Amino acid sequence: MRASIVKMSRRVWDEGILEKEWELAEVVTIPKKGDPEQVDNYRGISLLPVGLKMICTIAARCLNEYMEQNDILDERQAGFRRGEEEEDVRVFHRLLEGV
């Protein structure tokens, strides 16, 4: 299975070709708190094919690693960085609001 994933990943990277089935996502609604009769109390999510999610995960890891190694991201960028605590970001924003 691992060999298939590697082969699939290389095809996407080298040729820029995605499987036809990956071009579609199923969008479903998830209820939030509140009155279910109100449209605003729902949020949409996209259900993606597993193969596409795997390719996107691999790509995201490669890009993040490259940006970290080459010091491309600003130190204030923490939203999707490993090792950056969400609470630290919240405290930082609270401090900025108080200034």
How would you characterize this protein structure?
The protein is of the alpha+beta class and 99 residues long. It has helices at residues 2-15, 50-69, 86-98; strands at 26-31, 42-47. The protein has one domain. A two-stranded antiparallel sheet has the order 1-2. α1 (2-15) packs across α2 (50-69). The radius of gyration is 19 Å and the shape is flat.
Along the chain, the helix and strand elements come as HEEHH
The parts where pLDDT drops under 50 for at least 5 residues are none
Summed up, the helix count is 3
Instruction: Count the domains.
Output: 1
**Termini, distance in Å?**
54 Å
Physical arrangement of strands within the biggest beta sheet: 1-2
The total beta strand count reads 2
Fraction of residues in β-strands: 5-15%
Query: For the report, how would you describe the main beta sheet?
Result: 2 strands, antiparallel
Q: Oligomeric form of this entry?
A: single chain
The general outline is: flat
Give me the secondary-structure category.
alpha+beta
List the helices and strands and how they pair.
Layout: H1 2-15, E1 26-31, E2 42-47, H2 50-69, H3 86-98
Antiparallel strand pairs: 1-2
How do you describe this structure in short?
The protein is α+β, with helices and mostly antiparallel strands.
